[in-house]
Amino acid sequence: MDITQQVLSEQDTCVLEAKPESPTPDNPPWNGWIALLVWFISVLLVVVVPSIVVLGYLATRPELFSDPQVLVEFVKSDPVAIFLQVLALLPVHLATLALSWAVVTRFKAYPFRETLGWRSGGMRWWHYVLILIGIVLIAGGVTNYFPEADNEVLRIIRSSRAAVFVLAALATLTAPIVEEVVYRGILYSAFQRVFGVGIAVAVVTALFALIHFPQYWPSFSTLFLLTLLSLILTMVRVRTGNLLPCIILHTIFNGLQSIALIAEPYVTTPTIDPGPINAVILNLLK
Question: Helical H runs in the chain?
């Protein structure tokens, strides 16, 4: 074997032995179409699963099916029907997280946390405090000029204390993880690689806000604040290069407001409106 053949043989061996490049949060092992598919399925689950769950309850009231308008009003106002729809979000969140895990890891080919970015990315505790204070101040100013209008989430909160407890638990324990993995994790990671940071920020911010419109319309102040929250979370993802700070900020944000919502009847006189900021934070209904 001459020297040329020996060099080529060594190069071929190195190529065969080389391990595939490990993915990073900004170089994920999925593309934009897969990201959109995950997002679409997550939205579809939110629509379909609660409907199936409440349908079992409606089967005990066959007289309601004779009038579609009466049926719709019953589903929107009956405390049991509302509670079941809220409770159904738990399997929705778990199914969405399972799907996201399969996409991110390619069925255990890559580590889940490292692929999404599980480091602080330079975020310190006081960064979270400053961001939260800023959002609360802006929320107070906005709702002072544009009072909170009645919406679907407020009607859920008024329906029963059981619904409030379940809603608060989901908003704190599962929603921040699921929503951040889908939006700032899967969607943003794929879009920024293809379209660049600017377009990715705009699209992810808009999709996160848009999907909440049915629950908060026509409360323009809440919709504005939801859009602001989405923009801030997406910019945190850009600044840190990691998803973990977004999950932490989202969890603290939802958790504080969930505590306030649960404690409100015990510290103040109950009112029809539980407070605009509380309504903004309980944004798990996609």
Answer: 3-17, 32-58, 68-77, 79-87, 89-105, 112-116, 125-145, 152-159, 161-173, 175-180, 188-195, 197-210, 213-216, 220-240, 244-267, 276-281
